[in-house]
Amino acid sequence: MEFLIGLALIAFFIWAWSRNATTGRKAGAAKTPTHKERSTRTSHKPASAEIESPMRAEIDRAVQRDSGRVAVSPDLRRVRPNVSEDHFPSPPAGGGGEAWSPRTQQLEVAGEWYRADNLRTLFSRHAKVSESGAEIRLPAVLVPDPANPHDPSAVAVFVDGLHVGYMERPDATRYHRHIAALSGGELVVTSRQWLRASDDDTWARVTLSLPLPEHLQCPNPWDSDCVSLPPGSTVQVTKEEDFMEHLVGLLDKYGSDTVVAASLRSVTEQRPRSIVELVAVDIDGEQVGVLTPAQTANFLPLVRRAEEEGRTVVCRASLRGNTLKADVALHARKAHGLDESELQQLFARRPV
User: Fold this and answer.
1) For the stretch 326-337, what's the b/e string if a residue is b when 16 or more beta carbons lie within 10 angstroms of its beta carbon?
2) Rounded to an integer, what distance in angstroms lies between the CA atom of residue 94 and that of residue 186?
3) SS in 3 state form for 134-179?
4) What is the tens place of the pLDDT at every residue in 152-172?
5) Are the C-beta atoms of 226 and 303 separated by less than 8 Å?
6) Which of 19, 34, 44, 220 is the most buried (most CB within 10 A)?
7) Highest mean pLDDT among 33-37, 77-81, 208-212, 269-273
8) Integer distance in angstroms from the first to the last C-alpha of the chain?
9) What is the CATH number of the domain that holds 95?
10) What domain range is 281 assigned to?
């Protein structure tokens, strides 16, 4: 009898111990979130932890780099023309034109940090001022500022009539006299503007697109009564190999890689079974090639109209090569790419 009671007690203790162990494991398991619970919790991150857009990330990187450079480097700050209370650059007079060469490089503007109010005003006109950031693309006008007390070679940058900064000093030194020598003394260039702002802070960046300083003006100007086509798509000229003697002379005169003025005229070409009308391309009064029949169709209406008025069509032309091989390509808007108002302006007679 005592033996049976002992076995019962042992069995009871084993049962009680196993039950407590099972309960402990369940309690411990409840403290560890499941994969589903982890996913649910992760999906409810605060908005500030969300991944930023590529645009904002790009602006932030640029701002952190440039803003930090200005804040900790007094040497760089000194080389950038700054605005003071006793000097404000003269605003654009409105007489500036575009650069001659369509080949451009990207240059950064300095001093945006000192013109937060102007930049906020600019973006409030064309975009939304916010912490998420915005990008706009408006033409910039470059105005030489010889009266600048910090640098007589300074070039001020205006966008939509607002002063947004200066060209970097090394760039201004190279461009100042070339811009001042232009008709109107100003230059209009393509520009991109970024801005990100909070209630208290403003981060901004302005980038310019313009050619090398020596390519701002046409190296072989044309008669004022010519019809000058605006820059456009690139069109290859053919049969340059038939005019190499003249092309080699042009390369010696203007360099092995430059943009010059070319004139267009209509010619007839005798073929075995037909006569074809083509557009011939001349540089400095002598032929350098012809356009293909397909490209002739794009420019012949303009050439014919100009010739009916006793005038000549001129456009930009890339000239590159050497004594063995030369290449000519036009950069010009085609006839079908001009609307009626542009045609009227294009063919309007200029005062002599």
Assistant:
1) bebbbbbbbbee
2) 8
3) EEECCCEEEEECCCCCCCCCCEEEEECCEEEEEECHHHHHHHHHHH
4) 999 999 999 999 999 999 999
5) no
6) 220
7) 208-212
8) 136
9) 3.30.70.2330
10) 227-347
